[in-house]
Design a protein that fits this description.
The chain is of the alpha+beta class. The chain has helices spanning about 1-15, 30-55, 65-95, 95-110, 115-125, 130-160, 170-175, 210-230; strands spanning about 185-195, 195-205, 230-240. It has a 3-stranded mixed sheet, covered by helices on one side. α3 (about 65-95) runs antiparallel to α4, α3 runs antiparallel to α5 (about 115-125) and α5 (about 115-125) packs antiparallel against α6 (about 130-160).
Length: about 240
């Protein structure tokens, strides 16, 4: 519930357009919320593992109404799995990492019900193997920890100013190779701000070309680049003479 509120409230801020105080937009708020969700997932996994290990030293659980417990566990898994799939689909449509990360938080809740179901089934059919649910809980905790790292890593890379796709530079140069008036493209840099991808680079043109013609070539190429790269939000092009 806490992560749901964080995403709902945060979306109203990180969707705001760029302003004088935030010329690159407010996307970094989504990055921070995504890291926060990753930390919640990590704590969830750690809590499941801790309870599983701690319960091995105590007496086995005795369920007074195992049928009801099993029904509740299955219903919880089904509901949380549905929430996971629905939230993930919305996150993919909106291209929101925070929404997709929150979807995995729903799945972690579904996974946490698996040891409960295993415990009930073991108490019915294999009461001597009561520790199977502890083993399952540790496995589930490891899976949640892996998901936590997977959803947090892109956001940590963004905070460290990591660039976009490693092949982006090659695609930009390839797109420029067949265009008249462009001598060379170099010094390509990219960065992510939330879901926005920004790029800047140098475009070398004929030094005898007038400024207005060079500007027109750059604007035409920028338009073509933004159309070819769906993730790209903006491009800043610096004009240089080719003989430099």
């Amino acid at each position: 519930m806490t992560t749901d509120i964080a995403v709902l409230v945060g979306a109203g801020y990180w969707s705001e357009p760029a302003d004088a105080s935030h010329p690159y937009g407010h996307g970094r708020l989504e990055t921070l919320i995504n890291i926060g969700i990753g930390m919640v997932l990590a704590l969830t996994g750690a809590g499941i593992a801790w309870r599983a290990v701690a319960s091995t030293t105590g007496p086995p659980n005795v369920l007074t109404r195992p049928g009801l417990v099993l029904v509740i566990a299955v219903l919880a898994m089904s509901l949380k799995e549905w929430l996971f799939r629905w939230t993930l689909s919305v996150g993919e449509k909106c291209r929101s990492r925070a929404l997709k990360s929150n979807a995995w938080h729903h799945r972690s809740d579904a996974l946490s019900s698996i040891p409960v179901a295993i415990s009930v089934l073991c108490s019915w059919f294999f009461p001597e193997f009561y520790y199977f649910d502890n083993i399952a809980a540790v496995i589930v905790a490891a899976m949640i920890a892996k998901v936590s790292w997977d959803v947090s890593r892109p956001s940590f890379r963004e905070l460290l100013e990591s660039g976009g796709d490693v092949k982006l530079s090659e695609r930009i140069k390839l797109l420029a190779a067949d265009r008249a008036g462009i001598g060379k493209i170099h010094a390509i840099r990219s960065r992510r701000v939330g879901k926005a991808l920004l790029v800047d680079f140098h475009m070398l043109v004929d030094p005898r070309m007038c400024v207005s013609d060079a500007h027109a070539i750059a604007e035409e190429f920028k338009k073509a680049l933004l159309e070819s790269e769906s993730d790209l939000t903006d491009a800043v092009i610096h004009i240089e003479p080719l003989d430099s």
